[in-house]
Amino acid sequence: MNEIAANIAAVRERIAAAARHAGRPEGEIRLVGVTKTHPAELVAQAIEAGLTDFGENRVQEAEPKIAALADRRAGVAWHLIGHLQRNKAKKAAELFDIIHSLDSLRLAQALDRAAAERPALPVLLQVNVSGEASKEGFALAGWEERPALLDAFFGEVEALLALPHLCVGGLMTIAPWGPDPEAARPAFRSARMLRDRLAQRFPQADWSALSMGMTDDFAVAIGEGATLVRVGRAIFGARAPAF
Ligand SMILES: *Cc1c(COP(=O)(O)O)cnc(C)c1O
After folding, report:
1. DSSP secondary structure of 27-40
2. Residue whose C-alpha is closest to residue 77's, from 46, 107, 103
3. 130 CB under 6 A from ligand 1?
4. CB-CB contact of 173 with 102 (8 Å)
5. pLDDT one-digit tens code per residue, 202-230
6. DSSP type of residue 232
7. Which residue out of 81, 173, 210, 239 has the highest number of ligand 1 atoms within 8 Å of its CB and is therefore the one to mutate?
8. The model's pTM
């Protein structure tokens, strides 16, 4: 077994343990390997090892990588997990199978136009429930105590759900970084509770997906209901400092 395959197996074991601990079926949790900064050859090794889902942050970086792996495109899903600029919506709708980082109604409208020529584009709404200035996402810090903020968000969600070429599947969040993974728990819990509120308010849509948890905190995220974990370093190793 090569190193990538061994890393994937180890992460899968940790996912299974976290699921058991949470009393959840392991099959509910999908592992997305985050390949930003890593070359297509490493992605190919991960595909060999049976990984089917890959996350990239940037359209420009993903485009040549996805092209280099075109002969293995069948059975592989590419996830856009980083902030998307509206002027790249068309390219993103061509390249990706799902967008985790839908963070404004204007971006949703651009993606809806861009997805007109393809099957409905699966999207997750990225929510910022921790209020960190550096995080993208719908600004929802403290939504539990801010009914006006929540109402305004519901208004945007209503408009978003009316877009014919997008298919909303749930929420994505990034927890504040910190040395203690437990510190991420309140943000994950808040995102899950917000998802539950959305499911109550908009039962016509699918809210089952919760994309949350990375190398340092995915076990905590699984405990709070994550269905997609985005894991980079634990599979592919350290990245260059710029990332
Ligand atoms: C880079 C990145 C990840 C993966 O982070 P690791 O700590 O390497 O597991 C997950 N989600 C997003 C949005 C990222 O940008």
Report:
1. GG-EEEEE-TTS-H
2. 46
3. no
4. no
5. 999 999 999 999 999 999 999 999 999 99
6. -
7. 81
8. 0.97
